[in-house]
Amino acid sequence: EKGGYDTFMAKEIHEQPQAVADTLRGRIDEAGQIVLDEVRMSDQDFRDIDKVFIVACGTSYHAGLVTKYAIEHWTRIPCEVELASEFRYRDPVLDRSTLVVVISQSGETMDTLMALRHAKDQKARVLAISNTVGSTIPRESDAVLYTRAGIEVAVASTKAFLTQLAACYLVGLHLAQVRGIKYADEVSAILDELVAAPGKIAKVIEHLEPVREMARNSAGKDRVLFIGRHVGYPVALEGALKLKELAYLHAEGFAAGELKHGPISLIEEGTPVVAIVPSPRGRSLLHDKIISNIQEVKARGAKVIAICEEGDAITASHADFVIETPATPTLLAPLLTTVPLQEFAIELATAMGRDIDQPRNLAKSVTVE
Ligand code: F6R
C-alpha cells in the first residue's frame, strides 16, 4: 500500500504531480472559464462581493496565505486570511457581500467548522475548498470546490496542500472572470501555467537528492530557520511547520524583512537558514531584497540553503547550497518551492529516528475546538 516507499508521506509527495493534475482536470472549460463543483451562489452573488476572508488551520491556513496574494492581485478585492480558531472570537465584520473561503482537507476540523457557522450567521457567503466529498464543511457551505487529492494517510499534509493551492488559484481566477477581468491576458497566461505545473512539480521531485543531503547535514542542529518574501513567506511557514511536526525540532518561518527586527539574534555559527528566493525575472526588486537578507544572515554565521529558480546565478553566488526549481510565474511558485521543503523535513526527521507518518501528539483530523 506504500507502493514501494518507506512511508506514506514519501508516497504522497510523489503523488503530487498527479494530484494537482486531478484538481485541475475538467475545471477549465473550452472557453477557458473555471467550473466549480457545487454552487449555490449566482454569478451576481460573486459580482457583489467586496471583501474576501480566508479561514483555515495549520497547513490549510498556509494555502490561504498564498491565496491572498493571488486574489488581491487578480481581482483587486481586499482579502484577509485568518486562523479559524481566532476568527470568530474577534467578531469580524461580515455581511452578504463578504465571501468567506474555508479551506479544510478533512472537511471536519472543528475550529474551521465553527468559523464557517459564525460566517453564515452573519449572512456571509461561504465557499469551501475540501478534499473530502460530503464532509460537514462542504455540506454547510454555499459553494464547493473539491481538491481530489485522494486519501492522504500521513499525518503531515503534502499532496493535500498542493492541491489546495491549485484549487485556490482556480477560485481566484473564477472570481476574476465572474467580475470582468482586469488582467485578461495575465489570467489566461496563468491558466496555461497552472496546467503546466504538474510537469514542473514532477521535475522538482526528480531532483531531490541534494535536498536529502542538506537535510542530513542539518540533523543535530538546535534549530532551522526559513525565510521568504511575498508568496515565499507562507512557503517558509509551511517548511517550518513540516519540520516541527516531523522532527520535533525548533523551526520557524519568517518574512525575510522581519529578521532584522528581532529574530536575527537566533542565528549562530552554522545555523541552517532555508531561503525561498523569488524569480530574478519580473519582480527583481523582491529578488534583490532577499539577496540582502541572505547576506545579513551569512554575516552572522548562517549556512544558507536557497530554493531558487533554475539558472539564478546571483543566488548561487551568495548561498552555501542551492536547490533549483523550474521557472513559473511568481504567484504560482509555491506549487514548486514547497516540495523540496517537504523532502527536507522527511529526511531530517528520518535522520533523527522519528516516526514519519505518525508524529507524536498529532491526529489527522482535529474534531475538537
Ligand atoms: C499539517 C497538517 C495540519 C492540518 C490542519 C487543518 O501538516 O496536516 O496543520 O493542515 O489540522 O486540517 P484540515 O485541512 O483537515 O482542516
Describe it for me?
With 369 residues, this protein is of the alpha/beta class. It is built from 14 helices and 11 strands. It has helices at 8-14, 16-24, 43-47, 58-75, 84-87, 110-121, 136-139, 159-178, 184-206, 209-218, 232-247, 284-299, 313-318, 334-351; strands at 38-39, 51-56, 79-83, 98-104, 125-130, 143-146, 223-228, 250-255, 272-276, 303-309, 321-325. It has a 6-stranded mixed sheet with strand order 1-6-5-4-2-3, with helices on both faces. Strands 8-7-9-10-11 form a 5-stranded parallel sheet, sandwiched between helices. Helix 2 (16-24) packs antiparallel against helix 9, helix 4 packs parallel to helix 8 (159-178) and helix 11 (232-247) runs parallel beside helix 14. The longest helix has 23 residues, at 184-206. The mean pLDDT is 94. The site of fructose -6-phosphate has 15 residues, from helix 4 and helix 11. Fructose -6-phosphate is lined by residues 57-60, 104-106, 109, 112, 156-157, 241, 245, 365-366.
